Amino acid sequence: MAIGLSSPSILYISTILISLFFSTSSQTCSNHTFTSKRTFTSCKDLPYLNAHLHWTYFKSTNQSKIAFRAPHTPKGWIAWAINPYRRSMVGSQALIAFRNTKGMMSAYTTTITGYNPSMQPKKLSFHVSKLSVEYSNNEITIFAVVGPLANGPVVNQVWQVGSLDQNGVPMMHEMEFQNLQSKDVIDFSSF
Questions:
Q1: Is residue 28 domain-resident?
Q2: Which of 5, 78, 108, 117 is 20 to 30 Å from 175 at the Cα level?
Q3: Does residue 4 lie within any of the structural domains?
Q4: Where is the signal peptide (predicted)?
């Protein structure tokens, strides 16, 4: 016995398949287009938290122009960090972004000195310039130029997402598997 599909059913199934294709394909770094028309020479889909790192490395100055993207919740924050000493969160130096209590996107640098950091603005041991943030398609992107980097183009990176408290202050992230595994080594001179 053959099962027939009506035109509305075929249209419905086609729409679902197309939306699945675009939602899946939009989650890669290689096909991403920034609304600000910025471009980068390299990118990596990070293995946890649906995050992505884009960069252009300048060997002559040992600096990297970066864009870090991660999903955003209305009361959430994202952060990308370099740990100059080891592959862990403690000791990392972060760029953090979120929507503040006035509804504006905000980004600043902070240091992670323990397991329940204050997340208050602080200077880092390496130079950060052109720090900015944009929100588009339920994603926050942090843009910056980092460096020169003391240890060269190979760095320990950490990335994270979390929630804001009722006063709009970043709180400690969840302790789920993906949060605890969101660390890696990146070679800015590769790719």
A1: no
A2: 108
A3: no
A4: 1-26
Give residue 27's pLDDT.
62
Dihedral over alpha carbons 101, 27, 42, 143 (to 10 degrees): -10
pLDDT at 1 over 60: no
Burial class for 17, CB neighbours closer than 10 Å (0-12, 13-18, 19+) = exposed
Give Dmax (Cα) for the chain.
71
Q: What is the pTM of this model?
A: 0.82
In a domain, 151, yes or no: yes
Using a 10 angstrom Cβ sphere, with 0-12 exposed, 13-18 middle and 19 or more buried, the burial of residue 188 is buried
**Length of the chain (residues):** 191
Number of domains in the chain: 1
